[in-house]
């Protein structure tokens, strides 16, 4: 059981480690880019549930927490300033 969990974790690492936030995301968006954002927010400690690919209230709240923590305007919109900061953290 522990080995399969370890392998599953390793499978997710490349997605998280090589995420590049080049698209702005907002409330109501869905898809793979939202999953990447959610995985990033989980890794950073701002989100504590499994990625769904849906940018709704919990993801918006986590984005706002990320923005506040990094002294960015707390809008919940994952735009240029938030993407730049996230990409700096991933570099």
Structural overview:
The chain has helices at residues 2-17, 32-44, 57-69, 80-90. With 91 residues, the protein is mostly helical.
Molecular shape: globular
Rounded mean pLDDT is 87
Number-wise, the strands total: 0
What is the distance, rounded to the nearest whole angstrom, between the alpha carbons of the first and last residues? 32 Å
> Helical segment tally?
4
Strand content range: under 5%
Helix content: 55-70%
Structural class, from secondary structure content?
mainly alpha
Name the poorly predicted regions. 5-16
CA radius of gyration = 13 Å
Which oligomeric state applies?
single chain
The main pleated sheet reads as:
none
Q: In sequence order, what are the helices and strands, one letter per element?
A: HHHH
Key words describing this protein structure:
mainly alpha, 0% strand
Task: Furnish the topology, listing elements before pairings.
Elements: H1 2-17, H2 32-44, H3 57-69, H4 80-90
In short:
With 91 residues, this protein is mainly alpha-helical.
């Amino acid at each position: 059981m522990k080995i399969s969990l370890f392998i599953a974790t390793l499978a997710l690492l490349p997605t998280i480690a090589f995420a590049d936030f080049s698209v702005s995301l907002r409330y109501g968006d869905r898809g793979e880019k939202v999953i990447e954002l959610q995985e990033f927010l989980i890794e950073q400690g701002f989100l504590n549930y499994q990625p769904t690919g849906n940018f709704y209230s919990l993801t918006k709240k986590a984005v706002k927490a990320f923005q506040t923590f990094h002294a960015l305007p707390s809008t919940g919109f994952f735009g240029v300033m938030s993407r730049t900061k996230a990409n700096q953290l991933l570099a």
